Amino acid sequence: MVFVLIGISAHPIWIGLILAYFLGFKLGAFPISGYCDFINPATDCGGPVQWAYHMFLPWMTFMRLFAALYVRMIRANVTETLNEDYVRTARAKGAPEWRVLRSHVLRNAMLPVVMMLGMDIGIALGGAVFTETVYGLPGLGQTVVQSLSNFDLPITQGVVVFATLAIILFNLVVDLLYAWIDPRIRLA
Question: Which backbone phi and psi does 162 adopt, to 5 degrees?
Answer without folding.
Answer: -60, -45
